[in-house]
Design brief:
Distance between the termini: 14 Å
Strand content: under 5%
Number of helices: 4
Largest sheet: none
Number of strands: 0
Structural class: mainly alpha
Number of domains: 1
Shape: globular
Order of helices and strands: HHHH
Helix content: 40-55%
């Protein structure tokens, strides 16, 4: 799966809507604790302690997507892309 590089221009609204709907179906977003456990993966652990918390699943998806979209590793890899790769590998090993 090839993912286009994220730019400062944002994510197209139709892609963002699809991403949001897909993430709403991920059990990892059912609670702050479940989501945090995903971030034990070495690719994304640096963001584990700074994840935004939310009181419901919809808000959790929105806040985490926005937060990770803005974050990068020291080598320039986008955190949202890395997170999606971790989720993908977790569901399709």
């Amino acid at each position: 799966m090839q993912v286009e590089r994220i730019t400062d221009e944002g994510i197209q609204s139709d892609i963002l809507r699809k991403l949001h709907n897909i993430l709403l179906n991920c059990q990892e977003f059912n609670s702050n604790e479940l989501l945090s456990s995903v971030f034990l993966d070495s690719k994304i652990i640096q963001w584990r302690d700074s994840l935004p918390e939310a009181s419901d699943k919809n808000e959790r998806v929105q806040l985490v997507t926005d937060y990770l979209y803005r974050e990068y590793t020291s080598s320039g890899e986008n955190a949202l892309i890395l997170f999606l790769e971790v989720i993908r590998n977790k569901t399709n090993p």
